[in-house]
TrEMBL record:
Family: Belongs to the thioesterase family.
Designated name of the protein: Putative thioesterase
PANTHER family the record matches: S-ACYL FATTY ACID SYNTHASE THIOESTERASE, MEDIUM CHAIN, THIOESTERASE
Classification via Pfam families: Thioesterase (PF00975)
UniProt xrefs under InterPro entries: AB_hydrolase_fold (IPR029058), TEII (IPR012223), Thioesterase (IPR001031)
Coiled-coil regions listed: none
Domain Thioesterase positions: 16-236
GO biological process: lipid biosynthetic process
Taxonomic lineage: Bacteria, Pseudomonadati, Pseudomonadota, Gammaproteobacteria, Enterobacterales
């Protein structure tokens, strides 16, 4: 596979997981998953234009345009059972790509969503329009102060990326009421400041398949601190032989 949309995190022969990162993230965010996901499962991570290894490409500001490009690139993926995992912005993006795949008769086996309002609910925020300082404060509140986002060189590189991604997710609106036909597994941190558990449960409305809610200790980025617990849960789900098998 040579399409630049996907980065291979780890190989596997039975099934594959495609991961969609948060706003401002890159495919490299999922590198630790190389040693966490079961040996029989390949892991790919989406690399959006203007991010990571695609830094020289123009940024996208529309989530539907992102989804169109990723869905088209899915033809480069091996034909085997496929699940999607999306965190925050990536959850909405994974849902939209899954819809496009289903319309093409190439349904995924399951959709894992994490830390994001369901598609029919809007954030009601417009950080992408705000000042650089306001946007940086929002980024730090979500991701912590481990990186010095105000360091001039880092700021000049990352602020346009965050602004584009925030524009994509904050202006995103679901265009149709079509439902998926696959199971939906929703993962959330118990103290996530971005979405309440009651709102998060409404992901059950986007599919005709089964729905499961899994809560983890932590906030919006629980998957950093609770990585091993998340891996254990995902591996249990991936090993479930009752999971429908459909190829991309």
């Amino acid at each position: 596979m040579n399409d630049r949309t996907f980065r291979l995190i780890k190989s596997g022969t039975h099934q594959q997981m495609v991961c969609f990162h948060h706003a401002g993230g890159t495919a490299e965010y999922f590198m630790p998953w190389k040693n966490g996901i079961a040996d029989d499962t390949a892991v790919y991570a989406v690399q959006l234009p203007g991010h990571g290894s695609r830094i020289q490409e123009p940024l996208l500001h529309d989530l539907h345009q992102m989804a169109d490009q990723i869905a088209a690139a899915c033809s480069f993926l091996p034909a085997r059972p496929t699940v999607f995992f999306g965190h925050s912005m990536g959850a909405a993006l994974a849902f939209e790509v899954a819809l496009r795949m289903q319309r093409q008769g190439k349904s995924i086996a399951a959709l894992y969503v994490s830390g994001r309002l369901p598609p029919h609910k809007n954030t009601g925020t417009d950080f992408y329009r705000q000042s650089e300082e306001t946007l940086l404060n929002k980024i730090i509140s979500l991701q912590g102060a481990d990186m010095d986002y105000r360091q001039p060189e880092l700021k000049s590189l990352l602020v346009p990326i965050f602004r584009a991604d925030f524009a994509a997710i904050e202006t995103y609106q679901r265009r149709c009421e079509q439902r998926l036909n696959c199971p939906v597994i929703a993962c959330i941190g118990e103290t996530d400041s971005e979405v309440s558990v009651s709102d998060f449960r409404q992901w059950c409305q986007i599919s005709n398949g089964t729905f499961e809610l899994k809560m983890f200790s932590g906030g919006h980025f629980y998957l950093n601190d609770q990585r091993e617990s998340l891996f254990d849960f995902l591996n249990q789900c991936l090993a479930n032989k009752n999971q429908p098998v459909m190829n991309v």
